Fold this sequence. Notes:
Chain A is an alpha/beta fold. Chain A is built from 5 helices and 5 strands; from the N terminus they run E-H-E-H-E-H-E-H-E-H. Chain A has a 5-stranded parallel β-sheet, with helices on both faces.
Amino acid sequence: MRILIVDDDAMVVESCKRILKEEGISIQTAGNSRQAKEILEKAERFDLMLTDIKMPKQDGFQLVSQAKKKWPDMAILMMTGYLTQETIEKGSQGGVEGFIAKPFTPEELLNAIWKNLKKKPTE
Amino acid sequence: MFYSTRSKLIVSFISVSLLVGIVSLIVGGQMLYNSILSEAHHRVSQDLNVARVIYDDRVNAIRLSLETIGLSGDVHSALDTGDRMSLMSLLDQVAIRGNLDFAGVVSPDGAVICRMGAYAPADGVLPGKNPVTEFVLTTGDAVAGTVVLDQAMLGQENPKLAQRVLIQSPTDNQDNRGIQTEAGDGLAIAAAVPVTVDGRPLGIIYGGIVLNRDQSIVDKIGDTVFKNELYKGHKMGNATIFFKDLRVSTNVMKKDGTRAIGTHASNEVTQRVLNGGKRWTDRAFVVNNWYITAYEPITDIFNNRVGMLYVGVLEAKYADVRQRALWVFSGITLAGVALSIGLGWLLANRILGPVNQLIKASVEISNGNLLPEIGPISKSDIGLLQKKFEKMASALREREQQRHEEHETRMLQSEKQASVGKLAAGVAHEINNPLTAVLTFTHLILRRKSLPDDVREDLKTVALQTERVRNIVKGLLNFSRQTHLDPESINLNRLMGDCVSLMENNALIRGVGLNFKRKDSLPMVTLDRNHFQSVIVNIIINALDATKPGGQIYIHFRSATFMGRTGIEIVIRDTGSGIDPEHLDKLFDPFFTTKEVGKGTGLGLAVSAGIVERHGGSISVQSKVGKGSAFAIWLPVKPEKSSPQNNKWCDQPSCEPQTGSNI
């Protein structure tokens, strides 16, 4: 299983990376949307993209819409420090599978990932 | 307009004055007329008496002049000697002096020996007789009075007289009244006195006036009684001597200005006076005018009714007096009406002035001016109304003030919430990232099995405190993020019952009694069940925290109005420690807490107040230190539309209820 982590906060990226590594998941990380897009262009395929929303230049929503064009089957989980109804609405319309509010414990993150992956079983 | 109080008032005033006016016009007019009429009757009756006296005077004057001459020696000697020429010249003198139409001397045996202008030759006699001399011959006494002379007698006395008495009555041809004067008869006043010397009769002297066409008596009556007074071109009064019912001597004028000789009296008058022998006093139409008239019969020396004496006063003068009186009465009535209109207007203004002012004031109030001018307070009943109105206005002002303050408070509250919300959003985003790292790494380290126990315990503390930070941030976000309400019709008894049973265990553990009193026939209210339940639970938790074991919490309902609206109040009262008065104002402010550090975020009541207000309700608290506190949540019974500010945080129609909005 391959997961792409996108966040402009290095500590958040590092936290997620550490949690997922312990579970033996293959990970790539990006510090902003541009990097994430480059990775998505090159890579064969990710099972899930875990992305922050509030990022400089291009935010999470823009990234999601471009990623969905390239990889319509890829599950997307959004994380944010300020989860509102608006965010959920907007994300859902863009094809986002799930949302998780920061801060979270390793268990909470893993639960969210497994829950959203169930919809799209690994090939 | 015609239904206004002013019109009604004026109309009633007019009605009264008109009624009084018309009644006084009719009754007073009639009374006045009657009194005038009776006065006129009285006057005309007296005038008739005077006329009679004048008539009788004339008769007596004839008699007196005859008696005077009868006593003179010249007459005696002439009679003695049979000097008829001297007698005649004496008669002529008397006739001129007495204005007599005829006069004569009759011998004691009844033969006429001498007349005015003619005397019989010695031993001869003149033809004809005269009723008065016949009377004296029969009775031996002197006589004076009225007599009827026929054409033959008149002719013998004086052919001119016979001509004079001929009066052509315009109605003679068709007259069928049954009272006919013999054609050629004349009415006369005459006297005859016997002339005696030492008891020896020498003869009889007689003389008289033919009344036909002789106007001296009626003119004298006119002069003496009426003074020839004129009223509107007509003689004020007039007099007539009737022979039978025929006017033979009169100063009643016809339209052409000639005397109305030859006309007849009315049948009614003739019947009563001539035939019945009674006086007549009444209004009558004489020739061409209405008169107040009086008639009385004239009897001749043989006591036969041979004619009538009449006087009349023009009715027009009296009728005009009445007319004038009626005009005056009408004028007074009209003045009364005018006065009543004015009075009605004035009164209406006095009464309705303040009322109109009040109407204006109420319009002003409805336009928003709560301090309207209501004019000076009237001393009448209206004053009471004015005072009540003023009281109402001041109550409205108070309420408006209260509403204003309430609004200000709400505005302040929502501004506070808005700024806190912005702050919270920013802070949350910034804090949550490092918190994620802290939480993640703490948990990852805790997963290691090789950790020494003391390190593990310390790490657990780090994790717990980080959780606390997370909860504080979460509460802050919940406070700032006003979630969508999903209202439904709620049975408050059931909702409160649910809340109480949720907290029962908690209360039992703390040793606090939880008493809930249901209320029958409670109206349904429209509420968001989850949000409202969280409000109640929050307040009960606060009450439990403030109450020592053995204390009590009472929950009950009561009906209450708030700012003029009806509603229901939920009261949650505890017997706990109470709230310091200086804390009461800040109680609903975010982050205000009296709990120990770490026990509360200071957001619970702020969020609760926000939820209650968004339901159109209000939350208040009363407290006494050491005695306990009572929270009252007032809710409108009729569902109220949420005010615009409530949608500030969630204005999309698709806005769904948010998860995790617990307080």
